[in-house]
Design goal:
This protein has three helices and eleven strands; from the N terminus they run E-E-E-E-H-E-E-E-E-E-H-E-H-E. By secondary structure, it is α+β, with helices and mostly antiparallel strands. The chain has a six-stranded mixed sheet. A hairpin with an 8-residue loop joins strand 2 and strand 3. The longest helix has 22 residues. The radius of gyration is 20 Å and the shape is elongated.
Length: 277
C-alpha cells in the first residue's frame, strides 16, 4: 500500500530543536528593557497581554524552548502560526508567576502538546514591571518544535476545517478528500463520517531520503500500531508525512491513523485494543 503525504499547505520555518519531549520553559521575569508597556518584556515585543486562543509566530533568540522568543500575534487560519496560547495561568503576584507559573502551565497544557506529532510547551511569564499589563497571568503556549503547527489546535478548532499533518492530534477523526494531485483532511466529529482516526505518531529515520520515508510511512505506523488497532482484515493503519520542506527542516514525524482497509468512510471512534467492527 502506498504511503501518502499530507501535502504542503504551510512553508517550513527552521528552528533549533529542544532536546527531549514536550517541556515547559518560562521567561526570566527581567527581560531586556522590561517596562509596564510590555507585559512580558521589550525583548518579547508584545504590548498587549496574550489571551487563550491567540495564535503566534515565534522567533527564538537562541535555543528553542530555552531562550526567550520574540512573539507576534497572527491569524490562526491564514497566518501560519508556530502555535497557540492554550491557557493563561493567573498568579497572586509576580513572585508566584515567576516561581510557579511555568509548572502550572506544563500541567495544564502538556496533554495538548503530547497529542501533536512534534510540539512542546512554553510558559511565558510576565516581567515584574509588566505584571499588571499581563493581567497577572502566565501565557501557556503550545508551539511546534521544528516547523509551524500552522493552525488552531485543541479546543480552538472547528469541525469542517482542513487539518494538516503538523496539526493532527491523537483522537482526531478526519475525512480524506482526494483532489488527484493532493488531498485534504477535513476534521470531523468521530461520530460522523470519516476515513481516518489519529492514533499516534512515529519518527522516520532521518538518514532516509524523503521519498523513501514517504514510501515507508505505512509500514512504520503499521509496525507500531497494527496489532492493537487493526487486528482484523477490514482495518488498516496508515502513515502520513508532511511535505519535503518540513522534512528538511526537521519535522520527521509520521502521523499514524486507523481506518477501513478499503478507505471507505465509517462512523464512531475506534477503541484500542479491540476486534475489527
Amino acid at each position: 500500500m502506498t504511503s501518502l503525504s499530507g501535502g504542503g499547505k504551510h512553508p517550513a520555518a527552521t528552528k533549533a530543536a529542544s532536546p527531549g519531549g514536550p517541556s515547559a520553559s518560562s521567561s526570566s521575569g527581567a527581560g531586556a528593557g522590561a517596562g509596564a508597556g510590555y507585559p512580558y518584556g521589550a525583548d518579547v515585543g508584545l504590548k498587549k497581554a496574550l489571551r487563550a486562543g491567540d495564535c503566534v509566530r515565534a522567533d527564538w533568540t537562541g535555543t528553542a524552548f530555552v531562550s526567550r522568543p520574540e512573539l507576534g500575534v497572527v491569524d490562526c487560519a491564514h497566518g501560519v502560526p508556530d502555535g497557540q496560547v492554550m491557557a493563561v495561568d493567573p498568579a497572586r503576584d509576580f513572585a508566584d508567576a515567576r516561581d510557579h507559573g511555568g509548572a502550572r502551565c506544563a500541567g495544564e497544557v502538556k496533554g495538548v502538546a503530547g497529542a501533536l506529532p512534534d510540539a512542546g510547551v512554553y510558559a511565558l511569564t510576565p516581567t515584574a514591571a509588566g505584571f499588571g499589563a499581563a493581567d497577572s497571568g502566565t501565557a501557556c503556549l503550545v508551539l511546534g518544535r521544528h516547523v509551524p503547527i500552522g493552525g488552531a489546535i485543541g479546543r480552538f478548532r472547528k469541525t469542517g476545517s482542513n487539518v494538516w499533518t503538523t496539526e493532527m492530534s491523537v483522537g482526531d477523526c478526519w475525512l480524506y478528500v482526494d483532489h488527484t494531485t493532493y488531498f485534504l483532511a477535513t476534521l470531523t466529529a468521530c461520530a460522523d463520517r470519516h476515513t481516518d482516526q489519529v492514533i499516534g505518531s512515529v519518527t522516520a529515520p532521518r538518514a532516509t531520503a524523503f521519498e523513501d520515508a514517504l514510501r515507508q510511512a505505512n509500514k512504520l505506523c503499521g509496525n507500531r500500531f497494527e496489532s492493537t488497532w487493526a487486528p482484523g482484515s477490514d482495518r488498516s493503519v496508515f502513515g502520513y508525512l508532511s511535505d519535503e520542506n518540513n522534512w528538511k527542516a526537521g519535522f520527521d514525524s509520521v502521523v499514524c491513523t486507523v481506518g477501513k482497509a478499503d478507505r471507505s468512510p465509517t462512523t464512531g471512534a475506534i477503541s484500542s485494543p479491540g476486534p475489527a467492527a
